[in-house]
Task: inverse folding
């Protein structure tokens, strides 16, 4: 153990209990990786704070000693976000897992950052409420805010940034601030909620979040619709949105991915481009929406459509979609999953998916394409042998091609997974001179570059 780590440990022991500090190799290994293919790197120390004041003291200590700090939720991110490439301290928020307040009448909830979305939804159900953002993984709300997570329900309810009313944030020097209020709208000051949401632990640590919640809809219907081509499927979704039908979820799954789903989930779905859909609302409104949707689908050459209102059948259908990543992992033992996402204007989505499929085939890569079609966001899941440098290079080349395709069409290199380390090299291309504004914000808020260094923007460390 080097001297600076020994000094850091003795400082941390002044305000944290022994069980809140770990230098155990297994614990450090658990915090050396996320769910991605990016290279791992060990933190020197992992700490488990229980309250805001402890987080503030940890950051003050790290800032004084110029020790890097990486906030850690569940480690489910996909672009190397939590990997501590400069080592230092990882702050694991799992002990800050309390639901602090449920304000039923305001449709707001106040939580600590380590609360997971399923934990929150279990509690909210007792009040007839739910939290809308669903990134698939059972992530923490702190991690979800830090990555501006979104998912299947975004087409109706919006992304994480739309749900955050207020954040309690500990800045690099230990100062504690609030970025918003409980008010539904505000014209006061700069939009700090917007700045901190999506900052990936590079600007501050969230210690409390006030989030919007919604009433559980009276009725829900799910559907699976099969199309001859990806274009037909995407055009059907565009028509549904243009008609103003308040669709709650709509997911595109390509032929190859349906094949994987059939094998893993023992389903027998037609192996064609497929939409998974969900509608919610009151019974009368829902009936009308479903009828109208059917007509639109038929106009776009839909070959088969199956509706499910029964809870078990609906869950089975959506489980098949949600288990897609695991279906690929099971079907390709020995390979590692590279998941990448880009987002384009919806009018460009069908061509973007067709382009991506052609590239996957021409690069001879095993993979599938799925999309949150209502948002113009699609994911590519590629299974690679990390010991085969040539295959890894082909996967990188694919990633680069779809990112350039998206940026060329005024889209973005990531719609929801975030930048981390994996998408950092595209920041200048996507943001141009605006990247320098981001660098100035980072330097102003974290002059010693201790907070999740090397992520989003690359700032030279002061190196003390
Ligand atoms: C199978 C699978 C499917 C996925 N699908 C989606 C999807 O559809 N949509 C989507 O958006 N994502 C998806 N993801 C990615 C991932 O689940 C999200 O990025 C999620 O928001 C990460 O939450 P986490 O708690 O795991 O955070 P972590 O991975 O632990 O951390 C993520 C980032 O947040 C920072 N952070 C964590 N806690 C705090 C805090 N308290 N204060 C400040 N910064 C903090 C970390 O430093 C890091 O930069 C998927 C992941 C998997 C494995």
Result:
């Amino acid at each position: 153990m080097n001297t600076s780590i020994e000094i850091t440990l003795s400082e941390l022991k002044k305000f944290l209990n022994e069980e809140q500090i770990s230098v155990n190799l297994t614990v450090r290994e658990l915090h050396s990786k996320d769910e991605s293919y990016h290279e791992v790197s060990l933190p020197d120390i992992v700490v488990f704070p229980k309250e805001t004041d402890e987080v503030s003291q940890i950051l003050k200590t790290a800032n004084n000693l110029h020790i890097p700090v990486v906030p850690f939720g569940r480690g489910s991110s996909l672009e190397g976000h939590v990997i501590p490439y400069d080592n230092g301290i990882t702050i694991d928020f799992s002990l800050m897992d309390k639901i602090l307040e449920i304000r039923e009448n305001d449709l707001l909830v106040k939580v600590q950052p380590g609360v997971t979305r399923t934990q929150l939804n279990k509690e909210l159900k007792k009040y007839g409420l739910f939290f809308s953002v669903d990134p698939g993984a059972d992530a923490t709300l702190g991690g979800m805010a830090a990555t501006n997570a979104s998912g299947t329900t975004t087409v109706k309810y919006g992304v994480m940034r739309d749900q955050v009313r207020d954040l309690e944030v500990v800045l690099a020097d230990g100062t504690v601030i609030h970025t918003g209020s409980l008010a539904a709208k505000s014209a006061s000051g700069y939009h700090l909620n917007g700045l901190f949401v999506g900052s990936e632990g590079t600007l501050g640590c969230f210690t409390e979040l006030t989030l919007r919640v919604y009433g559980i809809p009276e009725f829900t219907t799910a559907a699976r619709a099969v199309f001859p081509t990806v274009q037909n499927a995407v055009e059907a979704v565009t028509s549904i949105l243009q008609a103003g039908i308040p669709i709650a979820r709509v997911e595109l799954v390509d032929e190859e991915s349906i094949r994987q789903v059939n094998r893993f989930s023992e389903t027998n779905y037609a192996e064609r481009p497929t939409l998974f859909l969900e509608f919610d609302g009151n019974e009368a409104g829902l009936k009308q929406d479903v009828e109208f949707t059917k007509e639109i689908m038929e106009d776009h050459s839909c070959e088969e459509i199956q509706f499910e209102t029964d809870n078990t059948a609906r869950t089975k259908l959506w489980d098949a979609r949600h288990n897609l990543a695991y279906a690929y992992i099971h079907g390709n033992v020995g390979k590692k999953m590279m998941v990448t996402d880009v987002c384009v204007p919806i009018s460009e989505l069908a061509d973007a998916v067709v382009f991506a499929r052609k590239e996957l085939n021409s690069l001879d890569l095993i993979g599938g394409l799925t999309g949150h079609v209502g948002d113009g966001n699609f994911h590519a899941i590629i299974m690679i042998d990390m010991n085969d440098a040539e295959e890894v290079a082909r996967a990188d080349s694919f990633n680069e091609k779809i990112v350039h395709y998206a940026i060329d069409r005024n889209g973005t290199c990531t719609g929801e997974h975030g930048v981390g380390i994996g998408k950092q090299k595209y920041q200048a291309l996507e943001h141009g001179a605006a990247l320098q504004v981001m660098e100035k914000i980072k330097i102003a808020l974290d002059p010693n570059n201790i907070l999740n260094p090397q992520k989003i923007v690359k700032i030279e460390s002061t190196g003390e």
Remarks:
- The longest strand covers residues 205-212.
